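so my prof wants the structure for this chain in the tokens format not the other one, which i didnt know existed until like an hour ago. anyway here's the sequence
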Amino acid sequence: MSRYSGTWDREKAAHLLRRTLYGPLLEEIKTAQRAGLDATVDLLLKDASIPSPPVKYRNDYDEYITLGDTWIDKNYRGNNQYRGVSLKGWYYNNMVRSDRTNIQERMSFFWLNYFAISGPATDHRAMYRHLKLYQEQAVGNLRTILQRITVDPRMLFCLDGHTNDRRNPNENYARELMELFTLGKGPAVAPGDYTTYTEQDVEALARALTGWRNRDFLYSDSNTPVESYFDSAAHDTGDKQLSRRLGNKVIRNGGANEYKEVIDILLSYKASALNFCKRLYRYFVYYEINDEVMTHVIYPLADTLMRNNYEIRPVLRQLLTSEHFYRETFQGAIIKNPHDFLGSILRPFREFDHETRVLNLQRRYELGDQYSNYCRDLQLQFLEPPTISGWKAYYDAPQYYRHWLSPALMQSRDKISIGLLLDEDYHIKGDRIDINYYGYIKSLTDSKNVDNMISETLLIFLPRPLASNQISYLKGKLLQGTSESQWRTLVEKYLANPGVKEYARPVDDLLRDFFKALFGLAEFQLQ
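here's what i got, hopefully its the right format
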């Protein structure tokens, strides 16, 4: 797998950042271009601190917790209606934060899709713990995350692992562990034989995973910790005979550590590494995996994964610095998922952080919750993938990414971007807020020059060059009859008089119409 050796320019830097962040800032693109490919990838893959936990954000709920304190380790004695909104607001505010250049949140969603579980709403503390695992292991170790997710309280609850008993083994998790999380399901070559594993292996692994239970913490008003534990009385201590697909191995009784042996066995097969790397490729590069891609990309990535004991960072570094990743055909080849769509609008503006009068603790969380609602309207429900295989855009041929678009969904996207977020009368719970146009214009190299302003804006927001007639169309929307010299004068006064309506209003109005036209382009739906 050859390393990228072409020119490292702003366009290549922007492509890398679009695929690893939720909407790059111009400052990040310029910094990446100056720093070079290796330094930028190192920065993106650097261990990131875990965001501070969600908190009680309003005073009229839960008399047992102080405003601003976290609830992640608190019982449910009080009125807890706010916890769901708090969790969603926390997640989406982390997603669009603009104060660090790191892949953590992008990988958090990768894991949410990879371990795609849904079902009855579980205890919010367990849901937070689940999300925190993905943040901690964003670019960690596949073996480690498989071990931790196998006994994670939410996973045990949602895939019935907490009822898996030696007297009545439950096969749900064992099946998904092989079919989706490790080996992948090959074509059926005989009844119950899927090339990579068999029904015999499902039965054997289900027995090996028996005995794990959750504490009785679910919505508890006591201080029962949110955790799982091993009940040896519920564990099958007999030998578990695997099929020839798994080397006819026998799993002996390992008690509380037997699940780790299960994972070690599954990861000893290259099929597991190949399956993981294919899913990583579809997430970061493109959906089509032909023979050439398998030979020259997926197999080398799988070799790197196994050679590094399933550490993920070396694999991502190899992919993100490869010649393949920067092929022109892949630029703008992915339809944005709702997270990307929302982030690509908000993050380059640093969204509403300038609205300090309005965005107090309560409004900040309510705004994050509103972001969650927008994504729900675009068919990405928070912690609710539609199938155990995840969101269809990443596995369902032949549509793949096209699942994110339809005539109705395009109308919803236009309503959110053009009719709501860019609207001059946008409200959150009754308070008017506005996009940070001033901060955006100030961040450009020379916003007083119309052509430069448009050129840098296209670099930030679009993955492909536009045709000359499209650029002329956008320029017309920006100027609306004013001359380029008049634009220069308007912007000079705008920048010199922050917050003065007399100078802000004309420029803000022109920018609003310009961005409505930009976000209405088909190219804006791509990354």
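also thought this was worth mentioning. The radius of gyration is 25 Å.
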